[in-house]
Amino acid sequence: MKEYRILEQTWQKEFYRIATSQLPSENFISCDVGHIYGSNGLLDFYINGSLKWMIEIVREGSNLNEHLNRFYPPEVKRKGKRKKSEFGIYDEIERNEWAVIDFRCKSTYIDPYLLDENNLWIVWYNDEFTSATIKRKGKEDLEINFMGDSIPSFSLGSQGKNFVFVVPNI
User: Considering the entire predicted model, what is its pTM?
Assistant: First the structure.
């Protein structure tokens, strides 16, 4: 049986679609920014205004450490792979909150030390793409259904703004 995994670009487009429909009118979301703020990297998403959220999307843990390292200055000691050149490339961008959201199949392995990352969200979806479990350090796991009448929302930042993710049926 051939395994199907949703591409990172698909997760990014879905995040953008939902974010644009859920953000207050005084905020907007920009994608692939970084150079505008003097950064060497292309930040997946930036939400402006009072929120000032920075968001990176990865899939199946691909280059996860690299994405996390972009938010940390070089002097921070983190486990896992590191290249000095990837540390802190988003330091110049003003922010209140940041997150790396890793969409992955429940059957994939994750290094346990990554579960200690404060700003990492792991969205473990099942093989049928009908539900997922959202894991975050210090938070209870959140079970969500991608199909049906009750699809819960969840908050990214401390300011209580909520997003609802709906994954296209494959």
Answer: 0.80
